Structures are given as C-alpha cells and as structure tokens.
Amino acid sequence: MERIPILKMGSFLLVTIQVDMHDQLALALQDDLTSRIVADRASGVLIDISSLEIVDSFIGRMLSNIASMARVLDAETVVVGMRPSVAITLVELGLSLPGIRTALNVDRGMELLRSARNGETPGDGRQDG
Amino acid sequence: MVVKTVELPLVQQEDVVAVRQSTRSLAVEIGLTIVDQTKIVTAASELARNTVVHGGGGKVTLEVLKEASKQGLRLTFEDTGPGIPNLERAMQDGYTSASGLGLGLGGSRRLCTDFAIESKVGVGTRVTIGRWKA
Amino acid sequence: MNKTHLSEVIARHEDELLSDWLGRQNEALSGRRDRISETQLKAHSRDFLRALTETLSRDAGSDLGRPEWSSMRDLLGEISRQRVIQGFTPSETATFVLSFKQPLFTRLGAEYAGDSQALANEIWTATELLDKLGLYTAEIYLKTREEVILRQQQEMLELSTPVVELWHGVLALPLIGTLDSARTQIVMENLLEAIVARSSDLAIIDITGVPTVDTLVAQHLLKTVAAARLMGADCIISGIRPQIAQTIIHLGVDLSGVLTKATLADAFQLALKRKNLTLGRS
Q1: Residue at A77 is within a domain
Q2: Which of C193, C202, C229 faces A84 most closely, judged by CB atoms?
Q3: What is the pTM of this model?
Q4: Which class in CATH covers the domain with range C164-274?
C-alpha cells in the first residue's frame, strides 16, 4: 500500500494530501505522522488539503486525531487550503473539527506555526472547537 | 424515469473510494454545482462506509433520473447486516457514537434533498439518498 | 375503443402523414420558421409518429400517466424544452401536436369511407388523445420556461453582488436589498470563493442595506461565518440595525461566536487592528 509522503521543513512536517484516501491510508498517515513528530522532534505539522474534494466524518476525525496526538507531543497542527465547497459541506454535516487550527494556504500556515513555536499569541490564527 | 444505472459492490474499503468517484462523475454529468456535487459525494462516502464497516458489506445502486426537463441522482445503499436497532437515535447528531453511525446518517440527510431509510434488526438496512439538479 | 386501428393507419401512411403534417407546421409557424431547422422539425415529427404508433399498438388507452406513455412523455418533454430555448410560444409548441389532427383525420376519412360509425369512433379517439398530448406539451413548456427564468435570475444575482477588496487581505461584501434563501446562498458561496482567490483571511459582511432578515437568511450568514472559519478566515458582520438586531434575538439565532460591528467603518477599523495596521496622517 502506498503511503502519503511526509516532508520535513525545518522543525515542521509538511503533508500534502493529493489522493482520494481509503480508510487504511488515512490511518497509516496518522501513524506515520505521530512517529515522525517524535523522530524529527517536530514542533509543528502542516497538512495541505487543497486537493481534497471531500472531507467526510472519517477524514475529519483523522485530522482531529492528528491534532490531538501532535499536541500531546508538544507540536501544533495547522490544516490549510480547505476548499469552499468542502467547508460548506462540513458545516452542513455539523462537523466543526475541534482542536484544529486552519489557514488559507501554506504560507499563512507556516506563519501560524512559527508564531506558535515562538510562543507568540496567534494574530490571525483560527482555532475551532 | 431511470436513464442510467450503475451498481457497485461495497465489500472492502477501496470500494468506498470507487463509490465516491462514481458519484462524483454522475453528479458532474447531470450538471450539479460544485457545492451540490460535494454534498452528495460526501453523503455517499458516509453511507458507503457504513455499509462496508457496519453492514457487513453490501452494494450501492446509482441511478440517473430524468423527469421532463429535470435531472437527478439517486443512490441506494443496501446490506444484509445487523440492522440499526434505534433508528431515531442513530439519526441524531453526536460527533462520535459508539459505533460511529450517528454522525453519518443525520449529516447525510442534511446534505441531500431526498433521504429515506429502512432498517430491520437481523435483516439489514437500506438507505436511499437523492439530489435533483436545481 | 379499438386502438390498434389508429396505430396501423398511422404506420401504413407514415410518409404521407409526415409530409402533410410538416406542411401544416410550416404554415402555422410562418414568420418564426427560422428558429428551428427543417431537419430538426422533421426529426421531431418522425419521432412523434413512431412513439405514437408504438404506444398505441400496445393498447395503452389515453391515460398519459400510464407507464406505456412514458417514452412519449419524455419525447414531448425534450421537444418542449428545446422550443422554450428556441423562443417559441406555448401555443406554437402545442401546435406541434395539434396540427397533426387534420392530416390524420384526412387519412382516417379515406380508410373508413364506407363506415361512418367506425370513422366517428376513430376520430373521437384520436382527437381525445391528441388534445391530451397537446395540453401535456404546453404544460411541460410552461414548467421548463419557469426553470429557465429561475436559472437566469440566479445568474444575474451572481453578477450583481460583487465582493470588494478594501485592503490587502480584507474583503467586504456589501449586501443590498431583500435577501431570500437562494440569493443568500449564492452570495455566500461567492464570498468564500473570493476568500480563496484573494487569499483574504478577513471578510466583512455588511448588511446595512438589508431591510429584513429572516431565520433562513440568518442561518445562512452563520453557516458562512462557520465555513470561512474552517477555511482559515474570519468574518465580521457589520451594519446590523436595531430592528434587525431585535428580529435576530426574537428568532433565537445565536450570534455569540460571531464578530459584529455597528458600521462598516467600525468593522474596517477592527480589521486593520487585527492586521496590526493603523491609519496615519502623512
């Protein structure tokens, strides 16, 4: 089974989800990220979902789980690039993705992660939940 | 009137992905807006997963409907699984319920214009969802 | 009533019926003849005759609701829809069916020359059926036209509510006029798309120009704010007049999680502050 690649950028990990994931792939990503946060001593995780056309409750839970596990390991998670149609659908579904911070794109996401790491109070960071 | 039918198995996880993709392409075919496409594909994903994970496997029938000048998409998910004991409760929202069913059903209903569910304990479940091109 | 005879008569004289009928249609359309091609008119007419003979040969009766008539209904629905787009009137569209009467009666007259009772029966059956089909065509035409108008209205709405960039990363959506559910939905989707397109993480939705807000509209506004937040942007709702504030409270809508400001100017100031910007004199 292919796995979703995780890139290291400084003290952050970057994941770009570009495939239509089946459940096992999503779970594998969760596991891989957790291992890498520890292995690379990462202080932040950026998940780019700009290619995702669908976020259903399973993927939503996966993202929430990643954020929770990262927090336990003292790392922040930011999800970026959510499409309007996905956001509208999530609101309709009643999923609020608690504990997940979001940003419009990778640049903004990185800014958020940097200010979090530097202990600054987030300026434009969005926190849901 | 049904102008196109696609039947897909729902036995393993990869089947859920196939259902998403099929639903998406039919939704595009009948001209649904991007938001409406996303809604029905998301609902399909939830229900497909339910069928595989909780229904012990089953199938889904996708149909393109045509009425005068209107076009619509209808999906029927069927399984011969354990059935849902308390339908009303299962339809309510709960971010996580023990079996994970709660969110899928209530949410899916909100995402579709048409929604119907039949379930009998020990016999199985059938969920039908639909959306018309506005 | 013996339907199969009609079916046979039509099948036997198909070509003559077709050319006679086409002649009448051309006459009836006269000035607007150029809106449809000869080929298409001929194809529609031939399809109609085929569907008619096919269904009649199955003794379907004149109840158009029966499943045997479904392919005819679909055909007429399709033809009607095209006539709407081509700009014909409802009567012109119904005439497509009704103008078939005369050619058919002429043929029937020849077939039953010696049997006036049988002729009367066939003509009665035919007339009843064709009237129904004609009326059905007109109904579908009207339904289609409504749908087309609705769609055009929506398209106009999309064009008439522009999103404005007040500053880098700050968008404003000034809403004006009465909002209905459909319009609000489109407008909100446009705002979310603009948020992505202009990478703006702040959007001001100004409702100064909105006289009333009902539950549905209030819900759409809240959903938009929630969706924007999920995407990584924040919304400020400005211009909530006292009456609207009261209505919203009465409706039980919960605005507690939403940033609100009385005026667009206040909202803009708040936006600048959030971006750590201040306006200074030069």
Answers
A1: yes
A2: C193
A3: 0.71
A4: alpha beta
